[in-house]
TrEMBL record:
Record's protein name: Uncharacterized protein
Highest taxon of source: Bacteria
Species, as recorded: Patiriisocius marinistellae
């Protein structure tokens, strides 16, 4: 995320996935879900630029390096469902 640029943001929007490189070790991962306001600019045929605001489902992954193996608390039966 330190090297996040508008080009990387455009790629994420286009392909809807991301890869990150992290060093070997133990990590705790928290997944947050919700709806966030997204603003995009659109250029019309007459070259007029307009802004479009939408609410989009969003997942945020918080990855923290730990010294020891973290306790396993995942719930794989949890339904990640965001209703708008």
């Amino acid at each position: 995320m330190r090297e996040f640029t508008s080009e990387k943001g455009a790629t994420l929007k286009k392909y809807k996935h991301a890869n990150i490189e992290i060093e070997n070790g133990w990590y705790s991962v928290t997944i947050l879900g919700g709806i966030t306001r997204q603003v995009s600019e659109n250029k019309a045929v007459n070259e007029e630029v307009g802004k479009l605001e939408t609410m989009e489902p969003t997942f945020e992954f918080i990855i923290r390096k730990t010294i020891e193996k973290p306790e396993y608390t995942a719930n794989f039966s949890y339904q990640f469902k965001i209703e708008t």
